[in-house]
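Progress report, Aim 2. The chain analyzed during this reporting quarter is listed below.
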Amino acid sequence: MFFMPAHVFGQRTVSIKIARLNAQNSAVSLPTVMSDVLVYDSQSGVLLAEIPGESLTAIRTAASSAVATDVLARRDVECLGLLGAGRQAEAHVPAIQLVRDISRVVVYSRDKGRREAFARQISRDCKVEASAASSPEEVVKESDLLVTATTSHTPLFKGDLVESGSHVNAIGAAEPDAREIDTTLVKRSILVVDSREQAISTYGDIVIPIRERAIEKTDIRAELGELLTGKYSIHPSSNDVTLFKSGGLAVLDAMVADHIVSRVEKSDL
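Predicted C-alpha cells for the chain:
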C-alpha cells in the first residue's frame, strides 16, 4: 500500500491518494493496481470528495508523459509503441496524439486476446492504425516513441534495441527493486524524471543502475518541471535517446482533485 498526501499552498483542499498494488490480482480478474483519492477542506478538515483513483491517475500520468514527449521527442516521430494494455496504456494514446501526429500504434501485453482487443479498441476510439505485436522486441523495433506501462519487476527488453532518435516514457515500475527498462537503456539515454528525490530512492529503473555504478545521481539531467520553467534546457540530437521516468507525484493528484472538486461545486451537481 502507498499513501500519498499533498497540499498546494493557497488551495482550498488537501488530498491523499491511497493506492494498493497486488500483481496476483489479474489471476482472479481484479485490477493489479487500485487507488482512491480522498479530498478534504484544508481549513476545516471536512471530507469533500472521494474520487476513484484509477481513471484520475491514468489521465494525470498520460498528461505528464505527453508533456515530456512534447519537450523531448522529435517532431517527426510516427509509431507509438505500447508495452502494456491496461488503463494507463489506453490513456496514453489520446494524450500523445495531442502533441505528436502518430500514424501507427503497436501494442504488446502477455495476454494475446487482451492485446488484440486493445488494438481494435484503439483503432476505433482514436482513429489511428493499431496492431498487436507478438513480442516486446517487435514493439521496440517498430517504434520511435515508446511507453512502458506494466507491473513488471524485470526489464521488458534489451536496451540496445531502442533505435537512436527514439523517446521513451517509462511509467510502470515505481519500487526500488522493480524496473521495466534495463541499465543499458538508462545509461545511453538523456535522462529526465518527474522528481529527483523520488527517482533515486524509489524508482528501480534508476536505483538499480546507480547501485550497479553504471550511472551517477548527477546523470539525471533535469526534472520535467525544471524544463518547463526554463531552469534547464535540453536539445537532443537526432541520434540521442531521450528517457522520461515517472512514478507519479502526489502534488499532481492534489492539483487534479482540487480542479475536479471546484468544477463540480461550480456546476451545482
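The first strand starts at residue 2 and ends at 6. The domain at 61-249 is CATH 3.40.50.720 (Rossmann fold). These observations will guide the mutagenesis work planned for the next reporting period.
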